[in-house]
Every structure is written in C-alpha cells, then in structure tokens.
Amino acid sequence: MTVTATQPHPIYLAGRWVDSPDRLEVTNPADSNTPAGATYNATEAQYEEAVTAAVAAFEHTRMLPAYERGRALREISNGIKARREEIGRTLSLEAGKPIRDALVEVDRAVLTFRLGAEEAERMHGEMIPLDLMASSKGRVGITRRFPIGPVAAISPFNFPLNLAAHKLAPAIAAGCSVVLKPPSKDPLTMLTVAEIVDGVGLPQGAVSILPMTRELGDRMVADDRFKLLTFTGSPSVGWRMKERAGKKKVVLELGGNAGVIVDKGADLDWAVKRTLVGAFSYAGQVCISVQRLFVHEDVREAFLEGFMEGVKALHLGDPLDPVTDVGPMVDEKAAVRTQRWVDEAVQLGGKVVTGGHAKGSFFEPTVLENVPVEAQVCSNEAFAPLVVLFPFTDFGDAIRQVNDSFFGLQTGVFTNDLAHAWQAFNELEVGGVIVNDIPTYRIDHMPYGGVKDSGQGREGLRWSIEDMTELRIMVLAQPQ
Predict the structure, then answer these.
(1) Of 261, 366, 356, 368, nearest to 311 (Cα)?
(2) Which residues of the chain have pLDDT under 50?
(3) What's the pTM?
(4) Which of 75, 105, 287, 381 is flagged as catalytic?
(5) Which domains are assigned to the chain?
(6) Catalytic residue among 75, 105, 119, 253, which?
(7) What pLDDT was estimated at residue 5?
(8) Residue 253 appears among annotated catalytic residues
(9) Which pLDDT does position 461 carry in this prediction?
C-alpha cells in the first residue's frame, strides 16, 4: 500500500485497511516540531468488528497445518528483512531510538518471526504409560497442545517492533487469532509490519493491529471473548489489568530496577564495556536496563575510573545520526520526572558523579552514589539513563541487596569465581541470572520474564506458545 508523508497511515482491521474520525498524531521525541506521522485510533464499532472477526477466524486458524503457519511466519520474517532500512527509520523517528539500535531491533524481529516458524513446526506432545497399577493395565496416554483461542495483546513503546513480535509470532505459530494494541506513542512501526502480514495469506480476521484509546484498551482487557491477555508495560498498569481480566489466562512482562554485581575477580574492562551498554542504551528505557550497580570495594576505584571515561565518551544527540549513543527519552514529561527523582536523591544525601540534568526531552547519562535505598532512583523503576553505584565487600551481601527490591526480572553478575556464579543462580530472586554479562542481555528464543512485581509467565517463542495453547490428553484403553 502507498502512504504519503502527510497522509495518516490507515489501521489494520481484520484484513482491511480503514480510517476513523479519531486521528492520532505521532510526535518525534527528538524534535517536537517535526511530527513522525499520524494514524487513527479505532472506534468502538471497529473494535467490536475486530473481536468478532478474531472469534470467527479462530475456527480457521486452529485448523491450519504446521506447514501453513510456518510458511506465513517465514514470509513475515523475510518481508521485514527486505524493508529493514525503512522500518528502522520509522522506528527511530517515532520512538527516538538511535538508528543503530533501531536497526538491531528490526534484525531481532526478523529472528523472532523465523523462530516462530520453527516452533510452529515442532509443537509436539508425548506418550505417557498409564499401566502403573493393575486396574490401569492396557492403557496409554497421548498429549497434544491445542490453541487456546483469540488472544488480546498489548505492546509497549520502548520496543515497538520486537516486543509486539513476541506476541504476534507465537499467536500465529500456535494457531490463535490475535488483536494487537500497539503503543499510542509509536504505532507506525507495527502498522508498517501489518502491510507485510496482510500479504501472507492468513485467514481474514486472524490478525488485527489497532491503535486505540486507553478506555477501549480497558474494554479489551475485560472482554471474555479473548482467552489470553498478554501485556508488556508498567507494573502498576499490568497488575490492575490482571484484576479486570476475568477468567482468561494472563501473561505479564513488567518492569524492574535491574542490578549488576561486579565481583573482585571480574574482567573489569569487559564489565565496564557491557555495563555502559546496559545502563544507557535507548536512554535507559528498557525494563532490564542496569539501574543498580554493586561493585566490590577492592575494584571499585578501577571500575569507576573506566566507567566514567566511558560515560563521558557517550554521544547524546539526534537518533537518526549513526554516531548517536543516547537519544531522547520518550517525551519531555519523562525527562522532567527523571529530574525530579535525581533531585530527590540529592536532597536525601546522594551525590551526582556526572550528569543529572534534563534538556527538553533529553536527559544526560547520569551516575549517582551514596543514595539511600528508599530514594525513588533505587526503589522504583527509573526507566531513564541513570545508574546508582553501591560498594560491597561480601558477595552474599551483594545478593541480598539485589534481592531487596519489589522487582525481580534479570540480574547481571560479573565474576570468575564459579562458586559465586552458582550462588547467584541459587539465591537471586529473579527470572534470569546473566553471568559475565549485563541483565539487559536477551536473545529471542530464551525464556524471559520475572518474579515478584516484575510479572508472571515467560516470553520467548516456545514458552509463549505454551501459554497460548492448552494441553489435552487422550487415553487409549485396550479392551481386556
């Protein structure tokens, strides 16, 4: 389809491109005077049409053979790859993500849909012997996974392509129909992907991609025609959604205030290099961004020297400039909130080692130390380009400090002590322990999710498909 720079992008309703009276302007976080584009919010009638179509389409998607589901997903993957530069630029413009990172996100989405195709073709059950007592002689069980039904999916602004792909790809792979609400701040990326989805021959109504108001999104959350709700976003919103979701299954991938432990025997050059990436990529607007940094007292000075050199070398600027390391926050409101939290930390006795100032929607890469743990920058999710340093002398105490949090998504542990690696794996209250790398590490086929306020369930293609399917057993009895 052809969309001009001044023409709003239509929305994708059950295989049709439609508009609505509710125009949605998409701003450019780096330059509020240069809009990134426009689209539409779905109306209540359009929402109803999409859900009705998804329910009807499920009768067809659930019967699709594995080779058809796999083919569709591979074609989506190839289509995204073919339009890599275009999609990357759109993502950078509307999300404010540095173009290098935007292109990496496109590459990850290519992988995510390809992995979805592979998982669609290897969904399997098992044979279970049931003759464990005399009265069950001559019986065996056979299990198989069946698609759960229509899926309601809500994706966030910080990874508008790949986190949406982690909902769309497993739904198609499992044989579910899906209605996706993309983020209102940057919906154009997934509407571009919808152009690709539209050409792969899925049953009409199998996929709808509809920007919508929060009120209409709330209606989707409570709609009992959906059999699963999958949401990625803030903890406060996610847990309220769970309360309203009724009997449907709910998968929540929420926030965190991820910790990194740098042990005294760690490779400091590698730890510095990776922690800089983990703390400041996409202006810290990543739920597994490094926020709390625990460094052993014996190596604190050497680590901090290298880390500060790296921070000062970061380039803050235009997301479309290939040399930019740190772009804007999602909007000026987010930068103002970050400024307020940094000011609070200083008022409570904390020290700004570097940075600490908002400039419009941009926020300087910031390092803090001596901050009381009750400060917002320690206890809550900053979602900003800032990191708080804490010294430690006992490895077990560092683990306890990481665990002293409402959140538990992932933790990075830099150590060359195998006993410490095992201790971290056994004792950290998180969904993932990343040894000798940052908590921000993720590849798209691994199980990903958190504990405590960080969510429930796991994403990653195989694990998402398990949530989007129901296990059923057939018992075969041989007449005696």
Answers:
(1) 366
(2) none
(3) 0.96
(4) 287
(5) 11-254+455-472 (3.40.605.10), 259-443 (3.40.309.10)
(6) 253
(7) 55
(8) yes
(9) 97
